[in-house]
Amino acid sequence: MQRRDLTEGPITRTLLVFALPILGGNVLQSLNGSVNAIWVGRFLGEEALTAIANANNVMFFLLGAIFGFGMASTILVGQAMGRKDLPGAREVIGSAATFFLSLSVVLSAAGLLLARPVLAWMGTPADAMPLAVPYLRIIFLALPLLYAFSFLSAILRGAGDTRTPFVFLLLAVLLDIVLVPLLMFGVGPLPEMGMAGSAMATLLANAIALPAMLTWLRHRRNPLWIGRHERHLYRLDLVIVRTLVAKGVPMGAQMVLVSAAMIAMITMVNRYGTETTAAYGAALQLWTYVQMPAMAIGAACSSMAAQNVGAGNWDRVAGTTRAGVGFNFLMTGLLIAPLILLDRYTLAMFMPEGSASLEIARHLNHIAVWSFLFFGVTFVIAGVVRSTGAVIPPLVILVAALWGVRVPFANLLQPQLGVDAIWWSFPVSAFVSMVLSVGYYHWGRWREATMLPVDPDTVAIPSEIPAQPPAPVADQGVRVEEDPAGEPAVTLPR
């Protein structure tokens, strides 16, 4: 589980090997949600399925809200590792960890008090409320664990390690899948918790997987590990916190805008009746998996570009972009082709036999699924340009594509095209987004953006950062001594 130096080696192979665990993690999380929904829906009834759908909307919003902070942490750590500034990376990790933990505790406490009012505000059906409230309260209890796992995965990606987060995410998912039926039905000495057992399974799985990952990193003497003699690094650095907020909020806002646009689209679809909405819902199930390669490659490109920006390897940043776009077309295209050729069978998995919605779903899928090729290019380019700290232009491009093209296109052309205006709005807006992104990549000033100011006179740049120190020295291979001024000085093993 050693970190990968993304500033060296063949670009194409390095990017692919780095991206595959991210893709695997995305698939694992989606499968975990699907398995939990199957248990709840098939054995606890429609009220339970409605309850978990409403509660999960809250959970996904909370996790999406920290997406930007996680990406900002990934970029900061990646740039520091690229310029071989291990002390700087540790300073970012210490401040960011305190920020994340504090934020998660505050949100967790607020959620425990506001779970019922939030669900009522969302219009959760009355018969589902008794199930949704305890479920959501347990999710809020698990929130600090979920945030910590997400943060730790982000900084490891920034340092070039995607395998360690994948392995421990796999552990968490397997534990979750095993614990859900045991806690739902009260197998053996375990209590019968009903739907709340699904949330408790998530809490327990992360309560085991997170300490296991921390123990592993400490045991392996990971160079990013902050030992007991370096606890001063956990003090909040206001410059770092301001950067996390200033750069993270625009990136997190992108998730909010996408969610809002999807709500606007399904509101329009609902006007055409249950059959059309069911067809759209079935297509969305497939699209969840179609977009995964682009998202994984985009995240990998962001980490890889960040390290090379830190190292000043601009040719390699350009090579990362080209490789990412190429992989997007290859991997996304390989998914789209069978979904077009076999969509009669793949879409039927989500519908009753003989459903009238099937032909509607096939029709809209033929029109809209190609948009993910364009979406992937945008995601890759956005990941690269964000690696320098240019976070506002990708947000502006997203606003223009979704709210300047997709929603107005679908609204204004329905009198002429009917429901097809909604389906065509996906590829049209995705193409516009791709064109704007490519234009900004070539002619924009993203290369001049910065995350944190770097003073070359104060940053210690060791000649080499070992992926794994050869022997334990003091605590985790790091010795802290007092310099003549009385300040702690970090001595790294060579």
From TrEMBL:
UniProt main location, coarse: membrane
GO cellular component: plasma membrane
Region (Disordered): 464-494
Membrane topology, from the record: Multi-pass membrane protein
Superkingdom as given in the UniProt entry: Bacteria
Pfam families on file: MatE
PANTHER family (UniProt xref): MULTIDRUG RESISTANCE PROTEIN YPNP-RELATED
TM helices/strands, residue ranges: 61-80, 92-115, 135-156, 168-187, 193-217, 238-266, 286-306, 327-347, 367-385, 392-409, 421-443
Protein name as catalogued: Multidrug transporter MatE
Cellular localisation: Cell inner membrane
MF term (GO), any: xenobiotic transmembrane transporter activity
Record organism: Lysobacter defluvii IMMIB APB-9 = DSM 18482
Keywords in alphabetical order: Cell membrane, Membrane, Transmembrane, Transmembrane helix, Transport
